[in-house]
Structure formats: structure tokens, C-alpha cells
Design brief:
Layout (H helix, E strand, L loop, with lengths): L12 H9 L24 H14 L4 E5 L11 H5 L5 E6 L2 E7 L7 E5 L2 E2 L21 E5 L13 E6 L10 E11 L4 E14 L2 E20 L3 E3 L1 H4 L6 H15 L9 H4 L2 E4 L1 E25 L2 E24 L7 E8 L9 E37 L2 E33 L4 E5 L16 E26 L8 E24 L21 E2 H4 L16 E2 L2 H8 L14 E20 L2 E25 L7 E24 L4 E12 L3 H4 L3 E4 L4 E4 L7 E13 L5 E12 L2 E15 L5 E14 L3 E14 L10 E12 L19 E10 L3 E10 L2 E6 L3 E5 L2 E11 L4 E8 L5 E6 L5 E6 L3 E9 L1
Parallel strand pairs: 4-7, 12-16, 28-32
Antiparallel strand pairs: 1-6, 2-3, 4-5, 6-7, 8-9, 8-43, 9-10, 10-13, 10-42, 11-12, 13-14, 14-16, 15-16, 16-17, 17-18, 17-19, 19-20, 20-23, 21-22, 23-24, 24-25, 25-26, 26-29, 27-28, 29-30, 30-33, 31-32, 33-34, 34-35, 35-36, 36-39, 37-38, 38-41, 39-40, 40-43, 41-42
């Protein structure tokens, strides 16, 4: 285990030294800040919810931010992810315009630990990250993002921890009944969606019960000119044997039209610096989501010293997406390059890269693809929680289960046509035009030219189960010989997690099983075709781009009904199966000190957490058949892994004045590797000449981090805050070449031998070295009445985060690259007005550009900066009924991206505006 730098230049050194020598202990009756996030319920006011969120921030010993429901079962946004983006340092990842995953301080989503009611959340994703769009926001009462951990906090979040809390009956006074209904309209799909929720709660002496249910439907259309990326010229230059002529032609055309000569066609560092457009496509998506969530809370609370609570959470998230593509796949041109009309060797001269920006291809593979992506996730969580004041000890205990089951199906109906065409970059993406070759054609309106390839159906099943038990003991102290020692806390937590995955695929090539009579014979015109704007509903496709055209395509519903023969099924494939079990035991101890520095009250929390993790991973390895038969055999394998770690943490708060608070924190944290990466299996990619292995020996990714800041709490709920933080992150998981399998026989589809090759083995490994992330975070929450009573009711809630990071050098070509997902600048601004009857908010959320991925481990692909404006209006008809009107993305912002430089765009997407009208009653 590497030795990690910790507490270097720590601002806590002075406080620690003062503690050891101070004789100025606090008086016995002095109030002390709590380390706990107390439950606070707010009714009826956005402003009051902001004030209570500030109360939570102030009493917590570490750095944190919170969102509290503005009323019972009234979380402030339509989507949990979209609500979290309003918090300082929090941004979201959008999928077709919909908020889905959360980034804290721009670090990747898997760097964030998520829990509901103190149980790690299962989501059914392949990793440890959580898809927040599956949760109904109405069942959530509060969310806190903790950015500096204590020893008592469950490990797993380098970026931070998102703790979600649902409501309990004793949170309210007496009986509560809340009913809400809403309809929302998307201006691209031109569809209206329903949404409703109900919550009922009451207490009966020592007992209380609360139940809630929420349902929503959401339709969203996205028009996209996307899929354009760099492809190295080695795609053709490395061809040998019967395809040698393609390599020669590509080299000749390159020299003739650009003057560029390739010295060594096998040198990837040379051939990868000449690139062309890989796949240019027009894409239209229609996403439809059905979501429901329900909670049940039963609470026994005979007195203030004892509470026993059962919490249950159930839900279902059904996500269906239709995708229709009309694309030109130039990398599959069977006759290589024909003419290079234009190239750019100046824009990327610093990297020695030449981009072929406008090229004629002799026989481009044109594709019409009809795709479906269906996912259904059932999740459930049950827990029993004990809070007990036993004389001087506070005892907390929880046992619980969190589980998710995900069933996914993806389909792809593919028709292809090989014809000469011309592909070039435009300001919004790429486009395909007729070439100068006399055999060129109109790719959008030639259905007879497109031949059937296959109709592929993939199915995946994931089970994600997590069990946990925790027991904590806490005691306040008043020791004459050590008056500064105010509290001790210790505890133990055990978890048992498992993730199991099955996957299979089947291709239809004819009207029955093992029948390939449709391949190369059936055409696109032999199926029923529908206009693209009708397939995804709504208006004209990508109306914002004048050069885009309409086209006809096969509906997914038609393909499903007409092409699946009787008895069609998808069998799970052994080599795609894995199961990972992970057991952890965590022990922790921490202490709180309360003391004075001069006349200023101070609190110091210090602790250590010890974790023992054991992993058992099983799956299958694809092994070349040794009996002379074609193909590979899947053989079962399993392996154990383990690691132990000690994580120290220190949090410090000093009241410089009654309103001015100094905070500081330092800790060592880690995130565990994704379960998909430690899954012990080997799959083979014949086209890439690669094996891909899981790696149960992966270790966590670590971070040494520290932070200090000032928080100024003003009257009327106002807050000004600034903080500076640093993180040194090491052991990031990356894919790497780890071995070679020699003399692998590759067969053609007809069973003949294609050749004998060496196959590379790629695995996920912990990369050597580290990178640094530092930043400044600013927060301003200001009721404007603080400045002038004439502005009573108006206010601003704003935050800004700016990061500085070291380049990771993840590109195989040595291109300086920021860490993936890290946006240097993010900010949120909300201007609001509220009185007893009316409230209004307008919010703007901004996320700077960031590296989305490293294409082929060589070319960084950026997602452009994105800003979105949302509005919310509410009118309270009377004390019980309120009407709301909300607009999401009211300026219809586009989502864009590029490779290395903005002149080489990769995507141009529109997802439209969303307008909702709702009514809510509290009885």
C-alpha cells in the first residue's frame, strides 16, 4: 500500500496546538454544535426551506449543503437529479435532456456515495453510481451533500456523500393529507404527461404511520446530429494480404491530395495522427418514462428517549427509448479513400494531427438503424432503526436491505448500402453529400439500395442486493481533568453486497431460426416505412438546422411484430455472466472537543475508520477450442480479492463571532472499484483481436483531501460563504494492456480459417501516479429585504465553483487531457419572490466544458459548456390549495460537443422545452 500524503499544510495545526495547551474550557452550560443532521420539516414556503437548509449547514461539524422540501411531499423540482444541481458544487449528467446522474465538484458520478435513510442505494446500474431519475422526488423529504466526512460516515465517496431522507410520521404535528396533480408538455414531442402524488400521515399516541405514493409519466424527444468522431487512418493503412490494395490506395490518395507521406504503416503513433470522420449520422430519439414510488413508515415513540422506526421504500422505473439513425459509416468503406477535398493541419498542429475534413469515399457503408432501448428497474428498501437514550449513552442501530432488479432489452435493425458519397464537417456536425463519382446516390431517399443485415436483440438482467447492519454508541462527557473532551462515539457496520449479471444476444437473419435468407436480399423498401417526424411524434426533425433533411424509416413496433419469428428467444451467454460478492466490516471511533481559542468557541471532531473488504468474483473465460473445432468455449472461473484500509478524518469549527464561522477539514477517503470492473470474466472481440478480462485484484481509488472556509450567517436567513479545497487522487481505474495470448485461430463465418493471430489482453488496472484537483466554492443566499424593506419578498440564491486540476495524460498520443468529467467552472443563480399568496423563481444553471471520454484512448472528446434556464410560478388559492406553473429549459438550449477543437463538432442535440401546470392540496 502506498503511503498517502495527509494534512500537508493543514490549517488545523494551530487549532490542535491550542487544544493541547489551552486551559480555557467552555462552561458546562454552553451550547455545542451537533454532529448529527437533524430532521427538519418545512411547510408552505420556498424561503423557509432555504432557511432550514442553512440551519442544517450551520449545525453540521463538516462541510455540507442541504435541500429541504418546501412543503410536505413537495420537493422543489420534478426530478431528484435536477433538484440537486441547485446545490453548491453539484452538477448533473443529462441523458437526452433529462437529469440522470450527479457530479459533486465535477468529479465522475461514480466518485459520489449515495444512501437513502442511511442505507447504500442499489440502482441496477453496472457500476456503483446511482441513476437519480428513477426516484420519484415527491417521496423525498430532504437531501444533504456531505463534502467532508467524519469517521462515522460510511466510506465510498471521494467527491462527497449524498444522503437522502424520506418522511416519518412524528416529523409532523397530527394528521396530514396531501394530494397533488400535474400535467407537463414537451414542445418537440408535442405530448402531455400526467403526474400525481398522495401522502397520508397520522399519529396515535405512541404510534405513528405514514404512507405516500407518487406516479409520473415523462415523454421527451431529442433531435441530434451526432456520432461524428475521429478515426485513425491506420483503419486502412495496416491492411495486409488480400486487402493490401486498400492500404496502398489510401496511402496514394493521402500523398496525392495532401502531400502527407506515411513512413511506417505499422507505427500507430504515426498513423493515428492522420484522422478522418468515422460515422456521420442524423438521429432522432423518443424517450418515454413511467415511474412510481411508494413509502411506508411505522414509528413507535413512547417518549423522547426511545424511537423505533420501520421504513419501507418501493418503486418501479420503466424507461423506453426509440432511436432512428440515418448514418454514413466511412470507416467501413470497402474501397477506401477516393478523393480528399479538404484537410486541416493547422488547427491541431500542436498535437501533430491532420484532420481530413472533406473526403470522397469509394464505397461508404450507409446505414439505416432502428433501435430500441427498454429498461425496467424494480427497487425496494426496508430498514428498522433504533434511536435510544439509555442513561448517559445514545444508542443508534439499523438493520436493512436495499435491492434493485433491472431487466433491459436493446434491439437494432440494420440495413446497409455501399455507395460512393462525400462526408464533411459543418458548423453543427457532419453531413453526407453526393460525391463526384457517377455511382453516387441520395442516401436518404433510396430504400431499394439498402439491404437487410440483421435484426439483433440483446437482453440483460441485473440483480443488485445490499444488506447492512450498524450499531453506534455516543456519550457526552464532562470530565474535570479534561474539560475540553465533550463527546466520544464509536461503532461498527457490516455490509454484504452482491451483483449478478446475465446477458445474451440473438440475431434474426431470416423468417425462422437458422435461416439467413433475408441477408443481402430483403431491402428497406420491403418493409413498411414511416416518416421520421411521425415515428418520434411532433414537428419537423431538427428544424433548427437548415441543411438537415427528412427521411423514411422502419418503426421499431413494426420490426418487433413482423421480424421476430415464432419461438424467437434470447438465451443468456455463459461468457457474459458474472457474480460479485463483497463483504465489508468497518470499525470507527471519534471524539469531539469543545474549547476556547482566546474568547472564541471552537469544536474539533477527530476520528479514524478501519475497513476490511473481501471480494469473491466468479464468471467465465472464453478459451480457444483445442479439439480443432471452430470458436471458443466458456469455462467457469472464480477468484478472491481483499484489502484493508484506515481512514483518518478531522473537522474543525471556530466561531470567530456570533455570525462568522471558520471551518476546516482534512481526511483520507476512497471509492471502491466498480463491480463490473472486478467481475472475473474474459470476453473476446474477434474484430479487435482482443480479450477483455475482469480484475478482482483491483484496489480502491484514494484521495487525500483538505478544505477550509468562512461562513457568514446574517439576519433573515442570509448567508455568505467561501471555501477552498484540495484533493490528491491516486489509483484511478483505467483499461490497460496486461498480456498477450499467442496463436489464436480466427475463423470466417463459413468455418474457414481466416488466420492465426496474437490477441492482446486488456484489463482494468489502478493507474500509477496521481492528479490534483483544487477549487474555490462561493455561496450567497440573500433576501433583498436585508438591504431595503421595499424589496421584501425578493431574494437571490447563488453559488459558484471554480476548479484547477492537473492534466492526466490519459491519451496514448500524449495529448494533454484534463480528468474525464471535470468541469472547471459551474454556477447556479436563482432569483425569487415570495409573499403569502404568490411565489416566483427563475433559475439558471451552468456547467463548463469537460472531457466526456477519450476516443480510442487517443482523442479527447469534449462536451461543450451548457446553461439552462428554468422558471417556477405558484399561487396559493387559500390555506389548503396551491396552483403552480413551471417551465424547464425555457430557452430551448442545445447540447453540443467536439473532438479536441470546436471546429470538429461531435454532436448537436435539442431536447426542447417542458411546461407543466399543477395543483396541490394540503388537508
Amino acid at each position: 500500500m502506498n503511503t498517502h500524503r495527509l494534512f500537508a499544510l493543514s490549517p488545523l495545526a494551530l487549532a490542535l496546538g491550542t487544544l493541547l495547551s489551552s486551559t480555557n474550557a467552555l462552561a458546562d452550560d454552553q451550547s455545542t454544535p451537533s454532529n448529527d443532521i437533524e430532521e427538519i420539516v418545512v411547510t408552505g414556503s420556498y424561503v423557509k426551506s432555504l432557511e432550514k437548509a442553512i440551519d442544517l449547514k450551520r449545525v453540521n461539524i463538516g462541510f455540507s449543503d442541504s435541500i429541504v422540501a418546501s412543503d410536505i411531499a413537495d420537493f422543489p423540482e420534478q426530478n431528484l437529479a435536477e433538484a440537486l444541481q441547485r446545490m453548491p458544487g453539484v452538477t448533473i449528467e443529462r441523458n437526452k435532456g433529462l437529469g440522470q446522474k450527479v457530479n459533486v465538484r465535477s468529479l465522475p458520478s461514480e466518485f459520489t456515495f449515495v444512501s437513502i435513510n442511511n442505507l447504500a442505494t442499489a440502482s441496477g446500474s453496472g457500476g456503483r453510481d446511482v441513476e437519480f431519475d428513477m426516484f420519484a422526488s415527491e417521496i423525498i423529504q430532504s437531501v444533504t451533500v456531505k463534502k467532508s466526512p467524519t469517521a462515522a460516515d460510511e466510506e465510498g465517496g471521494i467527491a462527497g456523500s449524498v444522503t437522502i431522507t424520506t418522511a416519518r410520521p412524528f416529523d409532523y404535528d397530527g394528521r396530514q393529507l396531501v394530494v397533488s396533480a400535474e400535467t407537463a408538455y414537451n414542445d418537440i414531442s408535442e405530448k402531455s404527461d400526467p403526474k400525481f402524488a398522495v401522502l397520508a400521515s397520522d399519529t396515535f399516541g405512541d404510534w405513528g404511520a405514514l404512507a405516500s405514493f407518487a406516479y409520473s409519466k415523462r415523454s421527451n424527444r431529442t433531435d441530434s446530429n451526432s456520432g461524428i468522431n475521429f478515426r485513425p487512418l491506420s483503419r486502412w493503412l495496416e491492411k495486409t494480404g488480400k486487402s493490401q490494395w486498400q492500404a496502398d490506395q489510401a496511402a496514394d490518395v493521402l500523398l496525392r491530395d495532401t502531400g502527407i507521406s506515411i513512413n511506417d504503416r505499422k507505427n500507430k503513433d504515426e498513423t493515428s495522427r492522420v484522422v478522418f470522420l468515422d460515422k456521420v449520422g442524423d438521429r432522432a430519439y423518443l424517450t418515454e418514462q413511467d415511474k412510481w414510488g411508494a413509502t411506508l413508515s411505522l414509528q413507535y415513540k413512547p417518549n423522547s428517549e426511545l424511537s423505533l422506526t420501520f421504513d419501507g421504500l418501493l418503486g418501479n422505473f420503466d424507461n423506453h427509448e426509440d432511436e432512428y439513425d440515418a448514418a454514413a459509416y466511412t470507416a467501413s468503406s470497402i474501397s477506401s479513400l477516393e478523393k480528399i477535398n479538404q484537410y486541416d493541419s493547422t488547427t491541431l498542429s500542436d498535437y501533430g494531427i491532420t484532420v481530413l475534413t472533406d473526403v470522397d469515399y469509394a464505397a461508404t457503408q450507409h446505414e439505416f438503424l432502428s433501435k430500441e432501448n427498454s429498461q425496467e428497474t424494480d427497487y425496494q428498501q426496508f430498514s428498522l432503526t433504533l434511536d435510544w437514550q439509555l442513561e448517559a449513552w445514545k444508542i443508534y442501530g439499523i438493520v436493512g436491505y436495499s435491492g434493485a432488479e433491472k431487466q433491459a432489452e436493446t434491439t437494432n435493425l440494420k440495413h446497409t448500402a455501399y455507395r460512393p458519397t462525400r462526408t464533411r464537417y459543418t458548423s453543427t456536425g457532419g453531413e453526407t453529400l453526393p460525391s463526384s463519382n457517377p455511382n453516387t446516390f441520395d442516401m436518404y431517399n433510396s430504400p431499394d439500395a439498402y439491404l437487410f443485415d440483421y435484426y439483433e436483440v440483446n437482453q440483460e438482467h441485473i440483480n443488485d442486493d445490499k444488506y447492512a447492519a450498524q450499531l453506534d454508541f455516543k456519550r457526552d462527557l464532562q470530565l474535570d481533568f479534561f474539560p475540553a473532551l465533550a463527546q466520544i462515539q464509536l461503532g461498527v457496520r457490516a455490509t454484504d453486497k452482491s451483483k449478478e449479471r446475465d446477458y445474451g444476444t440473438n440475431r434474426v437473419k431470416g423468417p425462422s431460426e437458422d435461416d439467413s435468407s433475408w441477408v443481402g436480399v430483403r431491402t428497406l423498401a420491403d418493409s413498411q416505412l414511416t416518416d421520421i417526424s411521425t415515428l418520434v411524434s411532433g414537428g419537423e426533425y431538427l428544424s433548427e438546422v437548415d441543411s438537415k433533411v427528412n427521411w423514411m424509416q422502419i418503426a421499431n413496433s413494426y420490426a418487433r411484430n413482423e421480424l421476430r419469428y415464432a419461438g424467437f428467444n434470447v438465451a443468456y451467454e455463459p461468457d457474459q455472466y458474472y457474480k460479485v460478492k463483497e463483504k465489508t466490516l468497518a470499525l470507527y471511533a471519534m471524539v469531539d472537543f469543545h474549547f476556547d481559542i482566546a474568547t472564541m468557541p471552537a469544536t474539533l471532531n477527530a476520528g479514524v475508520r478501519y475497513i476490511d473488504t473481501k471480494v469473491h468474483s466468479s464468471g467465465y473465460h472464453q478459451v480457444q477450442n483445442e479439439d480443432g473445432t471452430t470458436g471458443f468455449t466458456a469455462k467457469p472461473v472464480s477468484k478472491d480479492g481483499n484489502y484493508k484500509e484506515t481512514l483518518p478524518s478531522v473537522n474543525f469549527a471556530l466561531e470567530l463571532t456570533d455570525d462568522l464561522l471558520l471551518r476546516a477539514a482534512a481526511s483520507k477517503t476512497f471509492i471502491r472499484p466498480a463491480l463490473t470492473d472486478i467481475a472475473y470474466k474474459r470476453s473476446v472481440s474477434l474484430n479487435e483481436f482482443k480479450y477483455r478480462d475482469g480484475n478482482p485484484d483491483l484496489k480502491p481509488t484514494y484521495a487525500d483531501q483538505w478544505e477550509f472556509g468562512l461562513e457568514w450567517y446574517l439576519d433573515e436567513g442570509a448567508l455568505l460563504a467561501v471555501s477552498y479545497f484540495e484533493k490528491e487522487i491516486e489509483g484511478v481505474v483505467r483499461e490497460s494492456l496486461t498480456g498477450v495470448v499467442n496463436n489464436v485461430t480466427k475463423y470466417n463465418d463459413n468455418g474457414s480459417v481466416d488466420g492465426i493471430y496474437d490477441f492482446d489482453i486488456y484489463q482494468k488496472v489502478n493507474a500509477e501516479g496521481s492528479y490534483d484537483v483544487s477549487g474555490i466554492e462561493l455561496v450567497a443566499q440573500l433576501p433583498l429585504s436585508y438591504f431595503d424593506e421595499m424589496l421584501s419578498g425578493f431574494g437571490i440564491n447563488a453559488n459558484y465553483t471554480v476548479l484547477d486540476n492537473s492534466l492526466t495524460g490519459a491519451s496514448d498520443l500524449g495529448i494533454p487531457t484534463p480528468p474525464e468529467g471535470l468541469a472547471e467552472e459551474t454556477y447556479n443563480v436563482t432569483v425569487y419572490y415570495e409573499n403569502q399568496r404568490f411565489d416566483a423563481r427563475i433559475s439558471y444553471n451552468y456547467k463548463d466544458k469537460y472531457v466526456e471520454r477519450i476516443e480510442r484512448d487517443m482523442y479527447p472528446v469534449y462536451r461543450n459548456a451548457y446553461g439552462q434556464t428554468d422558471i417556477s410560478l405558484g399561487y396559493r388559492v387559500n390555506d389548503m390549495v396551491k396552483v403552480t406553473l413551471e417551465g424547464i429549459n425555457i430557452l430551448n438550449e442545445e447540447t453540443t460537443g467536439y473532438t479536441l477543437n470546436p471546429v470538429f463538432p461531435t454532436m448537436y442535440e435539442f431536447s426542447g422545452r417542458r411546461i407543466s401546470l399543477g395543483i396541490r392540496g394540503n388537508f
